[in-house]
Amino acid sequence: MTVLKITGEKKDKDLLLVKDLRGYYRGIFGVVHAVDGVSLQVGEGERVGVAGESGCGKSSFAQLITGTTTPLLHYESGEVRVDGYDIWNISPEVLRKKVKCELISYVPQAMLSSLNPIKKVKEFIADMFRERTGCSYSVKKVCEIATEHFERLNLDRSVLDLYPYELSGGMMQRSIIAISTMATPKLLITDEPTSALDVSSQKRVIKMMIDIQRKGIIKSFVCISHDLSALNQLCNRIVIMYAGEFVESGGNEDVIKHPLHPYTKALMDSLLPLERETKYKPLSSIPGVVPDLRNPPHGCRFRDRCEKRMEVCNVEDPPEIVKGKRMVKCWLYK
Amino acid sequence: MSSRVTLLLKNRKFQFLLGIVIVIIMLGIIGPFFTRDPLKIAGRIYEPPSSQFLLGTDMAGRDVFAQLCNAIRDSLIVGFIAGFSAVGIAILIGAVLAYAGGVVDEGANVITNVFLVLPQLTILIVIASLLGKRSLIIVAILIALFNWPWMARSIRSQILSLKERKFVDLARISGKSDFVIVVKEILPNMLAYIFLVLIIGISSAVVIESGISVIGLGPTEGFTLGKMLNLVIRHEAAQQGKWWYFIPPGLILVIFTGSLLMITAVIDNVLNPRTREI
Amino acid sequence: MGELLEIENLAKLYISGYVWTEKKVAVDDVSFSIKKSEIFCLVGESGSGKTTIGNIVLRLLKPTGGKILLDGRDIYSYDKKTYWRKVQVVFQDPYSSFNFFYTIDKPLDDAFNLLENRPSKVERKKIIRTIFKKIGMNPDEIMGRYPHQLSGGQMQRILIARSFILHPELLVADEPTSMVDASTRVAVLNELLRLKEEEELSVLFITHDLAQAYYIGDRIAIMQKGKIVESGLVEEVIFKPKHPYTKDLIKSVPPLYEKWKL
Known about the structure:
The complex is a heterotrimer. Chain A is of the alpha/beta class. Chain A has a domain at 14-104 and 224-333: Rossmann fold, CATH 3.40.50. In chain A, 31% of the residues lie in helices and 24% in strands. An 8-stranded mixed beta sheet of chain A has the order 6-7-8-3-9-10-12-11, with helices on both faces. In chain A, α3 (121-133) crosses α4 (139-152) and α5 (169-180) packs parallel to α6 (199-214). Chain B has a domain at 17-30 and 71-223 and 249-271: MetI-like (MetI-like fold). In chain B, α7 packs across α8 (178-186). By secondary structure, chain C is an alpha/beta fold. Helices cover 37% and strands 26% of the residues of chain C. In chain C, α7 (152-166) packs parallel to α8 (182-199). Chains in contact: A-B, A-C, B-C.
């Protein structure tokens, strides 16, 4: 995989810099190339979305950039720099103290069942806060900090005194996001923050995440989701992931309304926005299946399902073509 | 499913442990045919192990190795009968309760709780002292009576949770009766679980039987490892240093039940996709 | 009245506890009807009671009040097998709908159980093959496989194929696409549309996704906390909503082409 050149301003203040990252699952089933050479730059003040369908590797990507990988996922190669710290090449102590406690906050998928059911929310917050900041405040003191934080985000303070089972899904998700930003990390990474929620809760979560960033509590966030409509609201830049690679990225309007990569085009054609035209549009799904990542094919990974396939697609891995903020990984644009 | 079984069979730990268990079982099944009569006096008193007597002789001159093989056989008979019947009853009752629901289920829960709290060993001792003659089978059944409640409860929970899966609803909507659904849809999904419960049932039955036999209240017929230990204690073989006599029965007990229990851990480790080793 | 399915004053109450009882109202006085060859969408958020209604129509749950008529007769007046020949289902979770112990052929094979004259094994295999070809799936690649070897979308389409075996009059589709990838979702929905056109099938389409309901539906009913708050033709309810809850619901759907002003 070759990166032709990176034009466009390279911010010195890159909060997150990912270069040619690879991460594979190694197990008795073989070696799955879940994340196979992706690069990303996130500066301060940016809201980036990583979109893809199930199995594309986006959750694995989230694990790799936060330094918290599940047992079978291994970091293979590449650079991941968070505020300058190369997280895969520093001591575990620094990783834990500096990066995980101060710089990054990671909210994985399906966190709704992660709160201890026999402890009130405020006890959980106190534990977590003391861990992250290293100070030993009493539950009461942490509660005060939490209350202030919750009120800044327009969250009802009464949540603190409740038990997890008393909260609704939407309330719980917002509380978790609020809690994870209490120690003011610079970068927030969320995996499917809106997926398990009702539509009305989704809007509140989206609003809250944007608020958190606008109010300066965090500097940037990276949001991983399969829901492009939600990402359109949450982010100002979207990256499309397919079979372990980033195939396209750019501003929301560009990627959604003027997609370049055939996969992105096909994906946009299969979405169902709530508009009059939807009922009369000729919608089609993408034929074929995602390639088996235990044996990623040579050349372009989308070629078996692509209408515009060419000879070279079968043989050589397409280059990443970059123009300003736009990127597309396809032979069509060489 | 068969791929999971092959995975299990290839696992080194499993092969090792299974090997041990099979060797012991073989000793119990084949041993008695090839060894001398354990009750006949064949040599001098307390002879140490030799080529003639693999484990020497006991305080009356009887072949210890022959005794061991027979003891293994009878202990296994009790263990297997107790284990299988307990599991059988548990599946039946667990399934019925899972489907009955309501007051029946609640009532059964209360009864199970009572059973769980009862001191198994104590009650077995009392019953044993009341019964004059206790065959191997009767002892096995008595032990099973104490084991099936906790098994039924776990099996019931498993069935309850599987019952909520949509393929059960789909089977109902295809006109299948509840009985057919339990046998063909639910139980196949519980095979690994039932197997584990069975192993625990067998090993715990062997241990409990040894427990009551050591104090002389075990089966009046047959000769089990526990009864062998009972003789060992009564004749103070340990204090006299006759290691070939007092070590083997206890050792076999520990190795057998220990291996079985470790097998359950290995099975769980291998079949649970999240903890699978590379 | 000539309607396929008529639901009148349906109610479902859950009571827990024996002495101190707690009541939970899942379905509260719901009435609607479905015509032949029509796709009727029941839309609501979680807890609105829509799935409960689906399960009641399927005779998996007994209602605590109200009447349900299929072809003019009370649904409990039919014997089970006849009823389930007329009413079938596609559930939300394809991974739960298949028994992983058996191949994917099993649910299809089981469906034949409901027919009066069950064809022979060879016949059944032939019929299943033709149906797979009809829905655009290659039987050689699929038959004899285990569920974990297929994708969610493929599994759902196989479950929909059951309807081609039984030719039911009504299909209850409970969130059939929510666990399916966006790119195959449309294939599943188009399958349902084709069933409506070719087999004159009616569908009770239960979902929380307004856009899907709009794409596939003829009429729609919006549910909130066990009651229907608004219903009517899909174009009217979605683009000219009257009830405040409907309006709120529509406004909460994140648009794909515009940005909210937050």
